[in-house]
Every structure is written in C-alpha cells, then in structure tokens.
Amino acid sequence: MPFYDKANAQNLAPLWRVLHGLVPDQPKPNALPAHWSYAAIRPYLMEACDIISTEEAERRVMILENPGLRGQSRITPSLFAGLQIILPGEIAPAHRHVASALRFIVEGSGAYTAVAGEKTMMEPGDFVITPSWTWHDHGNPSPNPMVWLDGLDMHVVNILSASFRESYDGKEQPITREQGASFAEAGCNLLPEDYKQESLTSPLFNYPYRISRDALDRMSRSRDPDRHHAFKMLYINPVNGGPAMPTLTTAIQLVPKSFTTTPYKSTAGTVFSVVEGKGSVVIGDMRFEFEPRDHFVVPSWVPFTLSADQDAVLFSYSDRVIQEKLDIFREMRGNA
Ligand code: 1HN
User: What is the pLDDT of residues 98-126, one digit of tens each?
Assistant: First the structure.
C-alpha cells in the first residue's frame, strides 16, 4: 500500500500537506463582507410568522448567514447573528444555556425579556444581555411585532465542547425582582456595600439607547473624532470596568454627517447594526449603502471605512475580548 494510504488507515495524516492552511501567513477568513438590507429581509421575518409560532419554534429567528459560510449558522467563524421576531401576545419560553446572548433592539417597542428573575422592557437601540446560564424568556404584550438582533457566542462554546442547555419547567420563570432593580444597584455609579461579583458579565442587563445616544452626542461635542472610528464607546461592566460581556465586545458609535473614517482592520470580525442615519461602508473591495435597521459584517483582517451622509449611529459586536484575553488580538490603523 502507498505510504499515504497506509498511514491513513492508522488515523495518521501528514502535516506537510496541510501546514500552510493550518498556519497561514495572515488571517484568511472564509467569511465574506456582507450586508442585509432591512427593507429586503423584513418581509421574510413577517412571512416566518405565518409559518411558525414562537412557541413551536422556541425562538423565531432568521439567521444572518455569511455568504462564505452558508449552512453553518455563522456570520463570522466565531459569531452567530440572527433577527428574532415576536408577535403581540407571544411568549418565547424560558430556557438557559452556557452560551451568552446579546439582544440589540431593531423594531417595535414594549416587549420585555426576563433574565434571572427580573424583567426589562426593550426599546429600539437598547442593548440587552443574557448572561451565561441564566434563565430567560421573552414576551410581547405590545400591539406590534418586535424585532431584535440576537448575537451569541455559541460557536466558541461549541468548539470547546462546553455547551449545556436546559428548558425551564413552565413557560415563564417567576419574577423575583422589580423592574429596574439591577439598574438601581449597578447603573448609577453606586454599588451595594456588600456587593459580590458573581460572574464576569455585567449586572446591568439593559443599556438603554436614550442613555448611550446622549453620551455619544455629548462626547462628539467635547472631543475630536478618532480617525478610524469617529466617536466609538464600548459597553462596560461597571463592577470591574471590563467589557460588558466576557466573550463579546460590544460598542456603539456615532459617525457624524460628512465624516469618512480612515481604513482600519483588526483580527476581530465585527457585526454592525445600523440605528440611525444613512451612509456607506467599504469593506475590502465591496461597498454597501446602509440605512437604519440594516446589518453588515466586516470579516477579520479586511480593511473597512465608514462614511456618513447623515449622522449615523452604529451598534457593533465582535469576539475581540476573547482574542485580547488570549493575547492574539491585532489591529492595523491606516493603509496596509
Ligand atoms: C436563544 O436562546 C435566543 O433566547 C435567541 O432569544 C437566539 C440562537 C441560538 C441558540 C439560542 C433567545 C438563539 C438562541
């Protein structure tokens, strides 16, 4: 038998045939730049509502699949993104999992999510966290459908074979804390004297848009824009000053009217959700126009620039915090 066949039968494979794919000269993501126009995809969210209930689906989510990674439920190799729609009167039943989730509210008003015994109402532009292994259910008592972006780290959890999940016995978990309790305890530059940090995730699980928008506005009037990001702020955990989530870096940024950012690339592929304004993004050799509620993805190590025709506000998330903890994050400011 030829060498390779003999070796193969012993579950042996030659490194020299795969070495440069395993350890490339520079990141070679299979992910492609991509953009989802909300106007184009909203009809599919609505049609999904005719096909399946939230209860039957558990979560009625249309996955934003990267065109270079079809069939894998990925928007980048490490990140999940999906748009969830919940109709008036529906309840997405309680469950918990090791994967952490973020919600970024895209359309509608007056639905809630309950996390670890506390409800929070969700408004467009709010950034909401479901920490690892916390019970969560969602409900929509409002008269209109609600849509939000779901960002999850489960691909990272799964590659480490560390995933567990559990359904709650019953549709909804009991509510044990009044609305706003977490914000009162951790969102006012105060902490209870006997506060004990229980996880690396921020105890704040709703970062309301009105607060972040106002902060961006004031920041833009009190300092110069960064050439690569204009006015960009990270959501942080007020207990330790670190990122709001241990696995996902989350940010909100304002690109003022007529501003164009200087090319920037990093090893953290990033998902963007447009809140306000119109503009365009050039990602590698692709260019997309964006407007509110659109989504786009910048893969690892692809340079991009943002241009705003009107003041643009963008939410984004990436796996940067994981890379930083592992000391493998790299960025390049400028052309290269
Ligand atoms: C999940 O639990 C939610 O709780 C949303 O709303 C999206 C995607 C994959 C796995 C679990 C939710 C999800 C998810």
Answer: 999 999 999 999 999 999 999 999 999 99
CB neighbours of residue 275 within 10 Å: 22
Backbone angles phi, psi at 239, to 5 degrees: -75, -40
Tell me, what CATH number does 77's domain have? 2.60.120.10
Of 138, 152, 132, 148, the residue nearest 209 (C-alpha): 148
Q: For the chain, state the CA radius of gyration.
A: 21
Please write the tens of the pLDDT for every residue from 130-151.
Answer: 999 999 999 999 999 999 999 9
As a whole number of angstroms, the distance between CA 200 and CA 204 comes to: 12
Range of the structural domain that residue 101 is part of: 26-333
pTM (whole model) above 0.70:
yes
Is residue 157 in a domain?
Answer: yes
Atom 7 of ligand 1, residue of closest alpha carbon: 150
Cβ(113) – ligand 1 distance below 6 Å: no
- Is 144 within a domain? yes
96 lines ligand 1 (CB under 6 A): no
Distance CA 273, CA 9 (A): 49
Say yes or no: CB of residue 81 within 6 Å of ligand 1.
Answer: no
